[in-house]
Description:
Its main location: cytoplasm. By secondary structure, this protein is mainly β.
Amino acid sequence: xxxxxxxxxxxxxxxxxxxxxxxxxxxxxxxxxxxxxxxxxxxxxxxxxxxxxxxxxxxxxxxxxxxxxxxxxxxxxxxxxxxxxxxxxxxxxxxxxxxxxxxxxxxxxxxxxxxxxxxxxxxxxxxxxxxxxxxxxxxxxxxxxxxxxxxxxxxxxxxxxxxxxxxxxxxxxxxxxxxxxxxxxxxxxxxx
Length: 192
């Protein structure tokens, strides 16, 4: 059992028969009345966030979670399949538990968060920066870059992002998965 004085960002606990992670919290001690803690909680299973207030000293059941690196294998009707990098065990997760799946490519690394006591996979965490090949975009025309600007591009994972006009099909680009924005061109397509 933990109480509100133990709250910290990333802490996971059981509340209202569900698993929640603390995204943000603030201890408040008003001049009149009892102290309380304002929190932003994220549901571990489906990802939706709620704001909740706890009285100071309220007790919650803390749950220990572990992050382990896995390799993304493929997606089919049963879900997304992953392999543990150390034991080579494979398992699948439903798509709604896989955050950032539009940036996963087969063979790519991803961290999976497990509930330590039951070994149940809870969610995935994709790397903050990933390199993906541009599979479809309009060709850049000489002189287009004078004014700057962006154009849509489809990546090998199926995601669509805005890229600068000089990016062509076959280029490998680095993007930030948190902001879902282009960062830089890693390599240009070969024109052989």
